[in-house]
Amino acid sequence: MNTSENLSTRRAPENDPQEDGQRYSQSALTPPVDVTEDSAGITLHADLPGVSNDKLRLQVEADTLTIDAEVGLTLPEGLQTSHTEVGVGRFHRSFTLSKELDTDKITAQLANGVLTLRIPKAQHAQPRRISIEVHPS
Amino acid sequence: MYRSLFPRDMFAEMDRLHREMQQAFDLSPTIRGFSRTGFPALNVGSTPEAIEIYAFAPGVDPATLDVQLERGLLTIAGERKGSLGDSDEAAAVHINERFEGAFRRVITLPEDADTDAVQARYRDGILQITVQRQAAAQPRRITVN
User: Which residues of B touch A97 (CB under 8 A)?
Assistant: First the structure.
């Protein structure tokens, strides 16, 4: 995963005319996730409804994986909401990764609002079968 | 497959408290009023021309979604397959928060909904249903002579 590009797009919010807007957008929902682990790595599924590829930002910094996403929903003009269960159009969640995970080989797919991340374990951390040589006595 | 154990009781207690508070604030819930929890989460809004319903249903095959309209009741039903089923036996489940299984949610539409003019689209995990309002119910400007 190319993290340097993601890092460079992150600006410090300093004296920005949009600062208030950014501050408001700091509030975010925590997306529900499923995390499973097998011998070769970890699989993460996250529910990100309304998020398209260009509104999703994945970032690995040191040992922290961060999911940051915005809902790209265009509401019709003059819409008056009468019932709201999803009140914030942003998702944010971060996880601490462990050392044996190979962050350079993370793959990510986004389909129908579900993000699937596969974080493989580094080669040396994967279980190996050690063959035993039997010497005839 | 084994599931790691988490002390869940605290969260259940918080959830109960949350629901109680919700009930205390919602003074006159309708008999068909919907709960604020459940899958898919719903946002409902209206413009002078139409009623817009947004159902947040990620990871659902649009072909399996069942949207029905009957006597002013809109039903959204379907099933979401779990992501854990396809992993092998040796896999450990660390976190399991996502909804899995069959779902059904019912919305009462306002009186002026035109039940013949309904559109449903599914994109990026959001099902958007647009129900037009009947022309007679739309606000009109009356010219004064």
Answer: none
- Residue B141 falls within a domain, yes or no? no
Q: How many domains does chain B have?
A: 1
Tell me the C-alpha distance between A63 and A85, whole Å.
33
- The CATH number covering residue B108 comes to 2.60.40.790
pLDDT score of B52 more than 70: yes
Domains in chain A, start-ordered, CATH in brackets?
Answer: 28-73+87-126 (2.60.40.790)
Contact B124 A112 (CB under 8 A): yes
Q: CB of B108 within 8 A of CB of B19? A: no
> Which chain B residues touch A77 with a CB distance below 8 Å?
47
* Of residues A50, A83, A116, nearest to B125 (C-beta): A50
B81-132 pLDDT tens trace: 887 766 566 678 888 889 888 999 988 888 888 888 899 999 999 999 999 9
With an 8 Å Cβ cutoff, are B60 and A112 in contact? yes
CB-based contact B54 A86, cutoff 8 Å: yes
Look-up of token digits 């009741």:
B73
Q: Which residue of B has its CA nearest to A41?
A: B91
* A84 pLDDT more than 50: yes
Report if pTM > 0.90: no
- A32 and B60 within 8 Å at the Cβ level: the answer is no
Q: Which sign, positive or negative, has the C-alpha torsion B123, B126, B127, B131?
A: negative
DSSP string covering A103-120, please? GGG-EEEEETTEEEEEEE
Q: Tell me, yes or no, whether B90 lies in a domain.
A: yes
Cβ separation B34–A43 shorter than 8 A: no
Token pair belonging to A46 = 């996250």
